[in-house]
Design a protein that fits this description.
InterPro entries: RecX_HTH_1st, RecX_HTH_3rd, Regulatory_RecX, WH-like_DNA-bd_sf. It is found in: Cytoplasm. It holds the Pfam family RecX_HTH1. Modulates RecA activity. With 150 residues, the protein is mainly α. 74% of the residues lie in helices and 0% in strands. It contains nine helices and no strands. It is elongated. The termini are far apart. The relative contact order is 0.11.
Amino acid sequence: MDDKLKQKLKNYVLWLLGRQEYSRRELTLKLQQKEATEEFIETLLDWCEKHNFINEQRYCEGFVRKHIFKCHGLKRIKSEAMGKGIDRSLLEMVVEELEIDWFELAQDAYNKKYSNTPPNLDYKDKAKRVRYLMYRGFSYDEINFAMQAQ
């Protein structure tokens, strides 16, 4: 790789990071699409970490907060974090630090969707609501709490 291409890729990474946070894995994939060598990718991303342009802790905190704002449960957050390349132990540490009340979050998600509906449900409606909350990543206990609280 010549110096001009290296500078172009460096500018590309800085441009991406100027728009939003990225994990190291996401940036690696983007640079691989631009046909950068593995050696250059490692060097560039190490440089970015050294200058605090990439920070996995900061990225993980933002990722978790974004999903909490969307009323997603722990299972959904973990599933999507795996796809983003977030370290599982880092994710668990961030979730523990934020001290999230998953039962309250499940109740908020339920109320946001079903606040204007009658409380007496037939089996079909109840199953539909359970599936909705399961898709959002909540456990059965959290779902039961949310549905009982209405």
